[in-house]
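Bumping with the actual sequence this time:
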Amino acid sequence: MKRRDLVKQLEASGYRMVRDDGGHTVYAKPNAQPIAIPRHREINENTAKTILRMAGLR
């Protein structure tokens, strides 16, 4: 999955970028666990599914 598609899904559900350091970008929203997104153009499908599950989108 492309990173920008994953970020669009997170932002559509209310997540906003909190910080951008190292090899990850951290997104968070009120009353939810922060989520770290790796900085790669392509994110492994299993990693993307796990991130979406953590965000409550799958």
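The tokens above came from a reply further down the thread. The longest strand covers residues 16-21.
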